[in-house]
Amino acid sequence: MAKNCKNVLTHGQCNNRTCPFEHKILICDPCDYIAPHKDSWKNHLEGKKHRDIVSGKAKTSHYNICQSNIVGGPQQWAAHVGSQKHRKLAATQQVDADVERQDGASTEKQEFCSLCQVSVWKSAWSRHLERPGHVQREKSRVALDEAEKDKNGISVEGGFSFDIVDPTTAGNGIQSTVTVTTSLPFSKTILAEVNMASSYNRRDAFSRFYGFYVSVDGIRIPRNVVSGRPITVRVTFRQNHIGRYEDRLELVFEDVQLKKRFTISRAVSAIVGNKVDHEALKPKAPYIPNIRADRSPVTNVIEGVAPPATTAIRFIGQLPAAKIPKGLLSVLLGPEGVRQQILHIQRAFLPGNVNGDTYGRLFKQLLWIEEFKMEYDLARYDIFNSTLSRHNSYYYLPVPGLAEKRPSVLVGDRILVQEAGAPEGRWYEGYVHVVRQAEVGLRFHTSFGWSPTQRYHIRFKLNRIPVKRQHQAMDTVFTEDRVLFPVSKHILNPRSKEMRINLFNLLIKDNPAQLRAVNCIVNQRAGSPPFVIFGPPGTGKTITVVESILQLVRNLPKARILACAPSNSAADLITERLAADLKPDDMFRVVAASRFKDQVPDAVKPFTCALPNGHFSVPAMAKMKSFKVIVTTCVSAAILSGIGMPRGHFCRIFIDEAGQATEPEAFVSIKMLADSATNIILSGDPKQLGPVIRSGIARALGLETSYLERLMRREAYAAKEANGVTGVKLVKNFRSHDTILKFPNDQFYSGDLQPCANPTTTDVYVASSILPNPKFPVIFHSVSGKDDREASSPSFFNIEEVLQVKDYVRRLRFDRHVLTTDKDIGIITPYHAQCLKLRSSLRGVADEVKVGSVEEFQGQERRVIIISTVRSSREFVEYDLRHTLGFVASPRRFNVAVTRAQALLIVVGDPHVLSLDPLWRSFLNYVHLNGGWTGPNIAWDPTIPVDEAGGYDRAIRIAARLDMNDLTRRMEEATLDTLDGEGEEDPDANVDRPWRDVE
Question: What whole-number distance in Å separates Cα of residue 602 and Cα of residue 586?
């Protein structure tokens, strides 16, 4: 087994062509480990130490309050911050105990090595300094410092930053002048070489080394550097694409007398973009993390005046209090880390075996855990020292972020208000009566003292009504196994005499899967297990649901159907689709009283009930029972039970987009309204986004798994067994161009989807001038930008990507050959700050283009989808896949994002960040191999199969390390060593000799 070559380890290279030792050095940079041979390397990668370090669990953090360092990830940090010792010390020092995670620092007993990011006991410090990893890092740092210094009388001056260059100017080329001079009149120094670092072969590891060229005025080099005769070096930058670009100018000199070479380098940079836009979009203030203060207890609350909306619907009973049990609350507030909390909760609060009897108890605990986190997150929106304005009986509170629902405030919500300086614990509770774009109108008790100059502290309260409704559902006695835990024995044979289907939507007759689903649903026997319509993107899930409902209404005159969806928009869509064939006497849309009339589509309003004061309500029970179809959101289905709708009234309960609902949300309708004869029909796609869960603990314990997804994991719903019995998979895609569909189809749906969209829609951009490949309407635009944050917002934005997206929108909007409206374009980005910057940039250009997160686009489609991925980390050695990619590394979010596009998909991002994730790397390869790539070129071979295990972040780190080795070697070979061969000299021998910097 060959061991590592000592020449490579020491000098970075080996010139012995017959060397028997290993020249490919396996280096684990995060662990400071050099493997002696391949077997050791494999063992290291599988070891606990390596896994902990690369996952962030072994990061060294410093606790300033406690003057200590600890190795661990966010969980360990949170556990320490929550510990009694830490909080007691914080109280003693009179500082806030909840502090942001800080980098390691030296303490009384330990030294912190900033190069290696580790804490070392002082007794072991000298040994640490001799470790190969530390020595290599030190050599790299010294090499960079050395390279950037003027030396031996040579000075290099000039413009090394091109600042912000207009794209047209950059495309034509722009020059900067660098001057080389010597301060030594009798120096015999030659400028031997002038290079850009990008001319060396390993530059493909970096995303920013493009577009720089160098030349020397006058005769060719090598040439003498003579005092009084400056040498002019011209650096040319030429680049057609928006982004940030960097390189390094390296000038190699030779001291003729000493026959030694030395190098002086300078970093050069350029930003291609619009200077005015950059100025408008730059951070408004430096990013300073917001350190949250502990909420003091609320002990005395003076209740306000409730709005009429709270009494618009008369309920026959009260919702349960469902307060978080003290035992569970103490665990969530306790000092344990998340892993320990999960184990503690599993052991003490969750049932060991989940069945019909324990099902409700399981999900009640998960609901409380999620509620705790929601309350905690809501506290970040607390406002200090705010003012209130008054108009009649309303007090108006400005709420930053209200338009973006950060926080979300509805009529009937309650907000706590306290006068600054008032006795601690005493608050006024204001009911929300009015919600505007940037402010809410509150009403307080008559004793509320107001002054326009008075300052107030504001706390937002979580609206617990939806949570209480879910608890109420979990407490019911409906526990049928055929619904909760269906198995093959629950499957009933269909009706002996099948109903004849006369289609409302004639397009379904040419779609066997849709037709089969409708037939199965209509002919199901009462008391069957749930039926699943598995509908990948654009396959017509909702169309199938609507057709099934209409067939039931036509064929079963006494049928009463409840149709639910997780969101108002999805419920409205069902109503609009059914409205073409049902009259207001046949269908009713339940709308929450807190919803405003202008938020309800015009086509839906005839199917609602509104009171004279404008608030939505419900008609009398007799009328409610007469409706053949009632449509509601999942949680608002509790309204029906709350007004006295009897269990078993509905023969079918449909839940559309069921994959987006939590299991307790889905079961509000089922557990409160179903009986032993009620059939449940779910439609959705578990490969797309699931429910949004804020609590990591709740996610780990199963709340993120939807009812739909859980069912599809059961044997009775496996693909072969389910087809036409317990479910149907729709396979005809009516949305996307086949080249847009192909990649997600292969990745997520085993290639089963068939592109069936109308070419008049999907082919509209084929042959467009915007496409790199006129036959391939998918673009990946490579952009190397910069992650930015501003003020106290931790959300990222990327100016370069904003400008590139804006350019695409402008080109699409003003293309004379293809008419594209604002409504045709959707922009998806994972970061809220990027959404805000994009909206700001598009103001006056394309005001009606929708910009939002993937969650906001699920279930929607646009002719054009532009995705801005944002992240563009500059620190190669510090890449952390889990933290750097975050949103981007989610397969479900990827799937939803790319499948929203009908005719054109444009992805704007940094390929060197995206390619760390195997899924994204595969997508980038797909686009490149089909000619859809534009911008700076791909940095890897796209024909090499992608390793699904990942590890591409390690490859980047090793490439960066090798690059630094190259630089170090060039510095070592070139740096003057004036002491070589010299003995002791006459102290006065050099008195008249000019000074040289000794390096």
Answer: 18
pLDDT of the residue at 38: 63
Contacts of 510 (CB under 8 A, 6+ apart): none
Q: Does residue 538 contact residue 607 with C-beta atoms inside 8 Å?
A: no
Letter for the amino acid at 852?
Answer: G
CA distance 139 to 133: 10
Q: In this structure, which amino acid lies at residue 613? A: N
What would the mean pLDDT of 766-782 be, rounded to a whole number? Answer: 97
How deeply is 924 buried, as exposed, middle or buried, from its count of CB atoms within 10 A (0-12, 13-18, 19+)?
buried
Rounded CA-CA distance 804/784 in Å is 11
Element at 952 (helix H, strand E): helix 952-974
942 alpha carbon, distance to own chain's centre: 25
Side-chain half-sphere exposure of 452, counting CA atoms within 13 A: 3
Confidence band for 202, pLDDT divided at 50, 70 and 90: very low
Domains of the chain: 26-140 (no CATH), 152-281 (2.60.40.10), 300-466 (2.40.30.230), 512-730 (3.40.50.300), 738-950 (3.40.50.300)
Instruction: Output the pLDDT for position 975.
Output: 40
Tokens (6 digits) for 924:
């980038």
Per-residue pLDDT reduced to its tens digit, 471-519: 999 999 999 999 999 999 999 887 767 788 899 999 999 999 999 999 9
Tokens 């760390």 correspond to: 916
Percentage of the chain beyond pLDDT 70 is 80
Residues 6+ apart with CB under 8 A from 714: 485, 486, 487
Burial group, residue 76, by CB count within 10 angstroms (0-12, 13-18, 19+): buried
pTM of the model: 0.80
Q: Residue 112: in which H helix or E strand, if any?
A: strand 110-113
Q: Among all chains, which residue has been given the structure tokens 């950037």?
A: 148
How far, in Å, are 62, 194, 293, 337 from residue 99 at the CA level?
Answer: 11, 49, 9, 16
Q: Which has the closest alpha carbon to 526: 569, 503, 560?
A: 560
Alpha carbon 130 to its chain centroid, in Å, reads 41
SS3 563: strand
- Return the H-helix or E-strand segment holding 132: helix 132-147
Q: Measured in Å, how far apart are the chain's first and last C-alpha atoms?
A: 41
In this prediction, residue 248 carries a pLDDT of 86
User: Which run of H or E residues covers position 237?
Assistant: strand 231-237
Q: What is the dihedral of CA 975, 977, 978, 982, to 10 degrees?
A: -160
What Rg value do the Cα atoms of the chain yield, rounded? 33
Q: Which two tokens stand for residue 544?
A: 């199938």
- Cβ-based neighbours of 927, under 8 Å, separated by 6 or more: 778, 779, 780, 907, 933
CA distance 255 to 188: 6
Q: What are phi and psi of 38, to 5 degrees?
A: -65, -35
For the chain, what's the residue count?
999
Mean pLDDT of the chain: 84
Tokens at residue 418, please? 């306290």
Amino acid of residue 191: L
- Rounded CA gap, 200 and 472, in Å? 68
The per-residue DSSP string of 617-675 comes to: E---HHHHHH-SEEEEETTTHHHHHHTTPPTT--SEEEETTGGGS-HHHHHHHHHHH--
CB-CB neighbours of 43 under 10 Å: 11
CB 624 within 8 A of CB 588: yes
- Cβ-based neighbour number of residue 451 at 10 Å: 11
Burial class of 610 by CB neighbour count within 10 A (0 to 12, 13 to 18, 19+):
middle
Of 374, 371, 326, 323, residue with least CA distance to 349? 326
> What's the confidence (pLDDT) of residue 990?
28
Distance of CA 756 to the CA centre of its chain: 31
Give SS3 for 995. coil
